[in-house]
Write a structure and sequence with these properties.
Oligomer: heterodimer
CATH class of one domain in chain A: Mainly Alpha
Protein name (chain A): AP-2 complex subunit alpha
Structural class of chain B: alpha+beta
Distance between the termini of chain B: 36 Å
Helix content of chain B: 40-55%
Helix content of chain A: 40-55%
CATH topology of one domain in chain A: Leucine-rich Repeat Variant
Distance between the termini of chain A: 77 Å
Function (chain A): Adaptins are components of the adaptor complexes which link clathrin to receptors in coated vesicles. Clathrin-associated protein complexes are believed to interact with the cytoplasmic tails of membrane proteins, leading to their selection and concentration.
Radius of gyration of chain A: 39 Å
Membrane topology (chain A): Peripheral membrane protein
Shape of chain A: globular
Subcellular location (chain A): Membrane, Coated pit
Family (chain A): Belongs to the adaptor complexes large subunit family.
Strand content of chain B: 15-25%
Number of strands of chain B: 7
Structural class of chain A: alpha+beta
Strand order of the largest sheet of chain B: 2-1-5-4-3
Order of helices and strands of chain B: EEHEEEHHHEEH
CATH superfamily of one domain in chain A: Leucine-rich Repeat Variant
Amino acid sequence: MDRKKTLINSSVSNNNSTIKGLQLFIADLRSAQQAQEQEKRIQSEIVKIKQHFDAAKKKQGNHDRLGGYQRKKYVAKLAYIYITSNTTKLNEILFGLEQTVELLKSSIFSEKFIGYMTLELLYERSEVVAKVNDEVNYQLMKDLSSSDDNFVMLALNFVGVVGELTNRLAYNDDITTGVFKILRSPTSSIYLKKKSALSFLALLKSNHSILTEDLQRKQLWIQRILSLLDDTENYRLTLATIPLIDFIAKYIDPSYCTRLLPQLTEILYNCVVVGTSRSSDNQFPLEYTFANMPNPWLITKVVSLLSILIASPTERDSGSLLQTNNIDNELLNKLRKCVSVAIELGTRQAQDPMERIVQNTVLFSLINFASKLDPSDEAISNSVTALCSLLTSKEINIRYLTLDSLVKLCSSSGKPAIDAVRYKNLDMIFHLLNTERDSSIVRKVVDLLYTFTDVENVKIIVDGLLQYILSPKNLAEPQIKSDIAVKIAILTEKYATDINWFVIISLQLLSLTSNTTINDDEIWQRLCQIVVNNPSLHRITCERLVDYLCKKQASEAIIKAAAFLLGEYSSLITDRISSANLFTLFAEKYFSAPNVAKAMILTTMIKLYKTSPEIGSNVIKFFQLELNSLDIELQTRSFEYLNIIQLAKVNGNTDILQILFEPMPPFNSKSNPLLKRLGSLPASAGSTTLINTPSEASSSTPDLLSKRANSSRSIMVPMPPPSRRNTIDDANSKISSSEDFSGKDSYYSRQILAPNWREGFTRMISHKQGVLFTSSLMKVFYRITTPDAQQPYVFHISLAFINLTEWEITGLSTQIIPSKTQGNPEYLILNINTPSTATIGPHKRAEQSYEVSIRKPFDVEDSPILAIHFKCGGSTNTINLKTAIGMTTTLISSDVNPSMHLNLAQFISRWKTLSDALGKEGEYQKSGIKLNKDFRKVETISLEDGLLLLTQTVKRLGFDIVDQTSVRSTLFVSGIIHTKSEGNFGCLMKIQYQVNGSVNVTCKTTTAGPLAKYIVECIKNVLTK
Amino acid sequence: MAVQFILCFNKQGVVRLVRWFDVHSSDPQRSQDAIAQIYRLISSRDHKHQSNFVEFSDSTKLIYRRYAGLYFVMGVDLLDDEPIYLCHIHLFVEVLDAFFGNVCELDIVFNFYKVYMIMDEMFIGGEIQEISKDMLLERLSILDRLD
């Protein structure tokens, strides 16, 4: 863009949209060379506009003297003044607010537009909002419900732009419902729906309670929003809807959104794989591509949402998310295919700059997502290789993004990624470190190196980093050098195995600090802690410190560390240097040191005196000198130390010194304070390498050092770094903490079930197959099988959805919601296959299956909920059903296993054994269970018929009945309940038929606890349905 | 995944467009300072040897690109992937270019309100809402002709 154009033709657009007065004003301002001149012009214009506005106000009541065009012109000028003054002149233009609001009321589009546009700019100021909010909201409501789409559009834009600047709109129920109404209305144009989706998002961001306050509204509105994705033909609405869903999944409730997985996968697959295939039958809408590449916007948005919905390997227990082992294999493979195609596309040569940007967008978005797909080691290593080939790219952005992506990959995928990088590309990375001139890239290189350092390569990497800091040609910002120093300190502490090397490097690092502006107390302090805690380091560190002190220029950090450590351990190196010489050394350094270091040296001196009283006269002289110090701290210290020495002399022994300056006890700070300063490294980066070597993770490094050095003393010190939690984690923990007291997921208990759900539920307890649900639109069949006879606690549940209408059912998706996903749940839902098709033709069917594995006893009322969502004939439907899996479902009938059959004597003896062992524990009684309506006129049924029906029911459940004739009115029943984690339980029951048509049940189980109750509840359900 | 703000200023640091999408600060002085800092940071960068991405604060990084004498800058969350925002910026500039016909800084100066109209058609709630250039231009020409 250059300034080749003259003023005259600068406005190419149609004439009636230009505002001549405004153009002249702007031209005037531009021709004014001096800032002062401009300022004068602005002020005179402001005065003029003020006069016009005042005049208009006086004439109120009469017809509008100012006129819409004039008003628009003046307000636009004020807006220009605001922008061009870099938003500083707010107060000078505030007088125009009233007339700006007046513009909103205009029925002329261009006037209304200028009004809204100006307010969009000014709404970032709370004083503006406070003044005009009520009036604006009123006008906003009128425009939202206007019959002119362009007015609605302006109102939606305004909400979308200022919705987050003030929460006044988001807490106005009329506005939130107004916007939502446009979003859900079948008659709104796609254009308005798109805008309303994003405006609604802006409101939701300011006020989550729009959706969370009222449960019913939450369910209803979220389903409405999700159904906007059903239109698979039109990606344009999808594009605007996904960010809204993204936000809901992240901050409101992800559980509603997990059912979108098949749809999202389909979009991604279409964009990345189908959209780019060169085959002639590539029938995909043009919109799936952009600049000859897959549509980057759709891809990044879909990937972002998928990343939220799929739990990463490290957050396995976050309940409401999808786990990779639970995702339909076909979908998982499709997603993986997308990643590999993106890598292929991303490494292709592209000429057009836009094409290259898009290429990178797609590549990095998918590569960063790949770690969520439980990739094979080979796949990871392939991604890494592809990425590393981009490190040599000429484009700086690509190198930056590649490094960023490698850091993420190494942190999330662990060893396979790390190995692939470090074994083949270390030289390359060091080369980048030394040649890059962009500090943000250098930072990424350092992060990457840090991420894959371990015991094996710590020396090479630390050496490379140290060279970088030392090299004078790297004029990088001091901040970076300081960050690198911190990282070196952490790495040496974490991975050093060689004491000598550890000490050399650490001191080298400290000695640097005077040359660069690194000023890190934390580094020398940490070193002192480590040395104190590891006796094997005492002597060697002290020796080296003396060497450093003897040099002319010792850095402040070296002096401080020396003052502290030599004070403690000088007695260990008397063969190298006498206390007297050490004292002289410190006395020399004293005068050039800053006050904090001086104070430390004073303490060192008295410690030296403690071990070598023969240097007393020098020490006393020194302290006496410092009594005159200008610094109060130094003066006080000298005075106190002098008195202590005198006291010792009077007593004739050094007891008081020994007590006051006892040897330093080991430090027990739990974590390395340096770890807080890792900066922008991803959450797990600090601990990645620890994962590979768990033995190291459990112990702490200084400790480790001493062990490796065969020290017999084991010392406690800092714990491994607490891994930082990322934002997603936090969001999830917030959500999962909303469990109710029974430990059930609140999401489960909040489901509103279909009115006649219980009928199918009861049928499912007693029958292995049948009808689960029927309505005028859909019929659902179920079938329960036990795929493996050895595992009677694992059930395969097949569902069939039949379309009963004459129309198509579209957008079919389901969710299986367990009562608990966290905290050791009673059962798990496994191997969920998504419905075989999302579209069911009239009278056609779709099928689906999943498995339930029962881990321990639970109440049948806590069975999984099946949520079915679909569209039919323009209506959006949700059916929530409970699919019964009871403890009785795990029974194996004695027809299959005759050995379980008991005779009466066995039954009685076992009953007695249970009574003796458990007493009333593990027993449950229920009397007066009324038989259901199928046994009509129960009073008239004979005992025989009643017992026959009971027998049939109980047998169908899988119980075994003892053959006996001695107690006619009672059935003696036995069975074995199976669970995965807690094993099998025996169960004995007496079911007594009363003449009045009711039944008493007494149930005993071989375990204390509520199992007996759970069994009786199943039976009661079947008998009374 | 949302744009925190869109800025456009020239080489001298004069602001041409400013749009905040979230509450950056209740203190207006702070947002003016932020703009000044962003200008200093970006104008000091070497576009040959430095990338188009730079961290700005502990909650924001900047994605920017220079077109002739104008810088277009977007502020986004630190965790966001950068390249898509370059797409945003590039598409925005392409639409401006097509709308004004070989756009230059003067077009943006004199028709700032139209540029805001274009921005509103492309970005609301910090998200991009339309990416089809044809669709955008068709809609914009209708709006531009409305009385």
